[in-house]
Amino acid sequence: xxxxxxxxxxxxxxxxxxxxxxxxxxxxxxxxxxxxxxxxxxxxxxxxxxxxxxxxxxxxxxxxxxxxxxxxxxxxxxxxxxxxxxxxxxxxxxxxxxxxxxxxxxxxxxxxxxxxxxxxxxxxxxxxxxxxxxxxxxxxxxxxxxxxxxxxxxxxxxxxxxxxxxxxxxxxxxxxxxxxxxxxxxxxxxxxxxxxxxxxxxxxxxxxxxxxxxxxxxxxxxxxxxxxxxxxxxxxxxxxxxxxxxxxxxxxxxxxxxxxxxxxxxxxxxxxxxxxxxxxxxxxxxxxxxxxxxxxxxxxxxxxxxxxxxxxxxxxxxxxxxxxxxxxxxxxxxxxxxxxxxxxxxxxxxxxxxxxxxxxxxxxxxxxxxxxxxxxxxxxxxxxxxxxxxxxxxxxxxxxxxxxxxxxxxxxxxxxxxxxxxxxxxxxxxxxxxxxxxxxxxxxxxxxxxxxxxxxxxxxxxxxxxxxxxxxxxxxxxxxxxxxxxxxxxxxxxxxxxxxxxxxxxxxxxxxxxxxxxxxxxxxxxxxxxxxxxxxxxxxxxxxxxxxxxxxxxxxxxxxxxxxxxxxxxxxxxxxxxxxxxxxxxxxxxxxxxxxxxxxxxxxxxxxxxxxxxxxxxxxxxxxxxxxxxxxxxxxxxxxxxxxxxxxxxxxxxxxxxxxxxxxxxxxxxxxxxxxxxxxxxxxxxxxxxxxxxxxxxxxxxxxxxxxxxxxxxxxxxxxxxxxxxxxxxxxxxxxxxxxxxxxxxxxxxxxxxxxxxxxxxxxxxxxxxxxxxxxxxxxxxxxxxxxxxxxxxxxxxxxxxxxxxxxxxxxxxxxxxxxxxxxxxxxxxxxxxxxxxxxxxxxx
Length: 845
Hints:
- The protein has 845 residues and is mainly β.
- It is globular, with a radius of gyration of 28 Å.
């Protein structure tokens, strides 16, 4: 696509409206229509061919939308603008029923309509939640705000919702891996606005939990609106204010190390105020959170066995209904954080860890504009800024010993990022041509500026007898200073061929400002009902995905003046973030030099390419009853052109950055969901997976916490490979008004490598063994009550009290392993999180 054509497309989109809240912020209405005889003891039957009409009450002159139920009584109205709607359902032999529905931006409502032979009828409206996607070609795990507060989540933030999705694992450092991908290979948005760190690719945003309305995790994001990813896509939808003034507070009491005394381990007070500024027109929500947490490493000496993190999160949202055709949303968020002793573990004591100081802010304005032909446009303009400083406790060299490090952390980094994003998404009016078509198309322009300085201190690798084995020294500081622009556009068609077959097809274009590459990515997915009973759904899809090249490599300059070994490097340029290193290797006496000093140059070979992956999946859902549904699914993904760094030793010593990395991911998923008025909502899943790839990926070295040494690349199990994972959770209404929410996770331990005293790998990487099986049984119990009258100023207010217990069985779940053959403790595991208790108190004013 030429630049002229693309600019014309940009102009066309901007002429239609102002500026995107992305497709993920649109809404939908779906559900079922059932019929029942007048006999109260009769069982309901799902109605096939029931007729539904949806009228936008805010725009009464617009033509209504119509649909009919499929073989299982399901219906869906997708890609709807936020508005008030009138939903009508009718069927032969039954009186019709009409219900007014208030649909907010990003909401997915599930409506159950029960028609009777008499004049009575019932309509139940609730937010959609869970992994079952009626009428959709791909599955989305929707986790609502109530589940986020009911299910025991150790971190107690919206990011923890990812762990309620099959095929997601969290590593010991808190990184989430979606569908076998690295933490930086998935997309994270808030109301459609990108909040990923453009350097690391990780999620770099946090808000108070009370401001979260729902978290949507796209397991297989086949829609062309999703781009620059390999794994999955996660979107946070935030709450807005309403016509009633509300004030809520939670976690107002600290958690002490000894329950009633000792050091404060956790203190996370949150206050949220929402309501109208101008009734029926302008609403606000303000949420504030102070967060302090202390994490212990039991294998270290008491008093020097903990790391701390302190942060403040402020989230502000304004919603304006300008008129029946235009709605605006403004968001402002700030999230400063300080952390001490990051990376603390059994072999990295406090003195050898780093501290972190960062500040982030996010501002966005978005508009929904409904046009005369009932099509609509979502627009947004956003700014995100951040400053990250990582620094050691002192300036001494880092000394690496088999049984534990001393000295100071070797890497300091100071970087600043600014990003402006403009998005437009247009939803065309539905039309009929050999079925029903719903088109949407969008465009996006990103401008990112980054500057940074990276300073490394010497590393001394010593043997168990403390003789020097290897010394690594560094030259000038690494630097980053660049500005890039990224362009993207997509077109997507949802084609409802018949009641049994729906096809989603689309294509995406991306222009990467780092690799300077034009990428065209086609996608296709489908939903098919093979049987007339409508209890079986077959979903599948195939697509090409391009990931962005991270800005973490720094500047790419012209080749150095000295000649390169052309047989090894070919055409080469230089990257600047890594400070140049010099490696010297010593004999057993720790004095005699047996190799070096070798001075390495940072070389990019062959030009950079955007990592690309092809994935396909197939899954079958079957409903045994109305309340019990099961699923079996298979996913395969192959990734090429991944960025890896390899050391090359010869006439010219180089650290070679090139796009030759590969990765493969396979997944078999078994899932069952059960919904019962008596037993509550339950989900259980088992996932078999296999994540393998090249292990010298660039993110190991080009990050705020880089790996110490460079060793030869290998293809093998990835560090987060967990072949088996079982997950079950739910909510149970117990006697005495209690809500009991248990959660069980059982998964394979992660693989690890064996190294010698020089930190060279011994044997195949990540195949020296695995951590023990991870088992955590957690539960949360809460009770809602009304504050008694004798409590001044709080009488009659609603409150909830309860407690969460983690790792109830105190199972040994170590986070550290001694993998150095030079240690007498080789093969031993350490640093398990034992049983912990957290109280819970919430009050609504």
